[in-house]
Design brief:
Elements: H1 22-37, E1 46-50, H2 51-58, H3 61-65, E2 70-73, E3 78-82, H4 86-91, H5 106-116, H6 122-131, H7 161-176, H8 181-187
Length: 192
């Protein structure tokens, strides 16, 4: 298996289906997601930029000009901006490219599938094995199927979808085991 410039496995090659062309569409989508997920200025729909950098680069008046693009101010001297702004593009222009969490192997996907009790859709499997192990996308980003990923500067691990599924299943089992027949019936959808 070959590697990309970022040290992640090269994508699997899929021949386009003469009937649908779906594989070719999926390949194009994977490439577009790699471009976005591997760029720290585009990885999420909003990112932090130091206020001092904006003031030094553009002047203090710039914060007033871009106020509609400001999501929030951080207590650490940063401002959270929408990604499609000039400030974000400039700030992250020279930042190293690559996924926040490198893609995982097919056996790792299979372990996560075993934990959740079902196979993931093929495109999602490709996303985790060719783009990144979570850590990109809208809002807080896509959860990882594996435990133990921590973003630089964070004090907690990135959310793991398999662990969340297991916790929710345990809560549901505990709830079903409730001594109240009414609560158990409601949980099981048998209540009238």
């Amino acid at each position: 298996m070959t590697s990309s410039p970022y040290g992640v496995p090269a994508p699997l090659r899929h021949e386009p289906s003469p009937e649908t062309g779906q594989e070719a569409d999926d390949d194009a989508l994977i490439k577009a997601l790699q471009d976005r997920a591997w760029d720290p200025g585009l990885r999420f729909d909003r990112v932090d930029v130091p206020v001092a950098w904006i003031i030094e680069r553009y002047g203090k008046h710039r914060l007033e000009q871009i106020r509609n693009d400001i999501v929030s101010y951080g207590s650490d001297g940063t401002v959270e901006l929408k990604v499609e702004t000039e400030e974000v593009t400039d700030y992250y222009a020279d930042a190293p490219r690559g996924p926040l969490f490198p893609p995982i192997s097919l056996p790792d996907i299979e372990k996560a599938e075993h934990r959740i009790g079902r196979r993931l859709p093929e495109l999602l499997r490709r996303l985790y094995t060719e783009v990144a192990n979570g850590g990109f996308g809208p809002d807080g980003g896509l959860a990882s199927p594996t435990d133990g990923n921590r973003a630089p500067g964070h004090v907690r691990d990135w959310p793991c979808a398999a662990s969340v599924h297991e916790r929710n299943r345990q809560r549901a089992c505990h709830h079903r085991g409730s001594s109240s027949p009414t609560a158990a019936a409601r949980w099981n959808g048998m209540s009238h």
